[in-house]
Amino acid sequence: MNQKTRTNPPGFGWAVLTTSLAFVVAQLDVSIVNIALPEIAKAYHAGISTLQWVIDSYTLAFAVLMLSAGSLSDLLGSKRIFQIGLIIFGIASAGCGLAPDALTLIIFRIAQGIGAAMMIPSSLALLNHQFAHTPQLRTRAVGLWTAAGSAALAAGPTIGGLLIAFSSWRYIFIVNIPICIIGYILSFKMEQTAKTNKKSFDLAGQFTWMLSVTTLISVIIEVPRLGFNNVMIWGGLILSLVLLGVFLWIEHKVAHPMLPFHLFKSGKFNSLLVLGAVLNGSYYGTVFILSLYLQKVLNYPSLTAGFAFLPLTIGFVISNVISSRVINRYGIQKPIIIGLTMFAAGFAGLFIAHEHTPYLQLFLPFLVIPMGMGLAVPAMINGILSSVDKTLSGTASAILNTARQTAGAIGVAVFGAMAAGGSTAILGAVSKSAAISICLTAIAMFLVTRGLRKTNTIK
User: Fold this and answer.
1) N or C: which end of the chain has fewer CB within 10 A?
2) Architecture of 11-189+258-451 per CATH?
């Protein structure tokens, strides 16, 4: 082993703090924008499809570039990619805060997604490298990393509401800049990870994957405006499927694919990918709908709506903090199953939502949904990292987060399409999104139970 990479390694707290700062800003920008949607609509005279693009341009870039970023992390070293991602994200956040129109905002949101795609796989790879020989410490580190990101995801609406109430919606982006600067400075003490032996970058695979997913999301977002029978909609769906087929063909043919197919021989790996997609698709889409519901149906002002999301933060923090102890004692299957049960139960609680629902009736589902997700996610991440060689940890975490972010973008697009048409449509979308989420959760639970049948402990 290269002794240079082992001199003055960062302590446990330093490593977790440094990597968690990146996850915090990446997750914060998924949810903090939701609470600002009405203000953004007023500033730019934007309709709901434009608002969907403000959300999905970020998650889409995040998703489609994650695989390439994971490959680059393994190829060039996670520390270098992590630092570049922080720089890009900070600059893009400044651009979002200063954007003069909706198109400029969307362009810089795409740039934010590029930075996030570089930060997340590399941050997990750095953690996995740091604690590769101490599984219990790795479990604890991943639990805290997840807790930080989950808390940021849940606290986004509350922080956004405060910033909007006392300043301007533009500060929801400016707040990222000092966090990126601190993370960049701290990262110099992190160890560089081992590099893989492959020498090339899968440009053709990245290009076809990006076009396929972007086309699919575009079609879903534009269905309410163009209509399902429009030739552009059907043409887009067909093009997306063709491009996906070309992507898979390329990955089979190239010497160094960004999507290593041998990873998918594991039932454990595959079932955890499905789990990640279901959790993010359901959660991201539902939070988008609930933001509109609180402000457009219940007529909450931004600050009140932001505080209404506070139970999400509490639920995530509680479950993420205790998850590492549960995983170390029981393995990954039990916390995932318990978490999914709570996740589905929380969505069932949203069926009570109507045009005059008291907030106290919404409090419990707002608390239980993130508690269930917060219990399942650390177990899922530990399962993914423990199932691959550490030199492929960047790629493995990138595949997982690609599945999660792609599903999140689809969730916002699909659930958002249900909400097009005013307060009545938004109200109906709450119940429909809850029903869909419950069904998807049941499917994920079945697949995970089968995939982890022989897995009782983290190896």
Assistant:
1) N
2) Up-down Bundle (1.20)
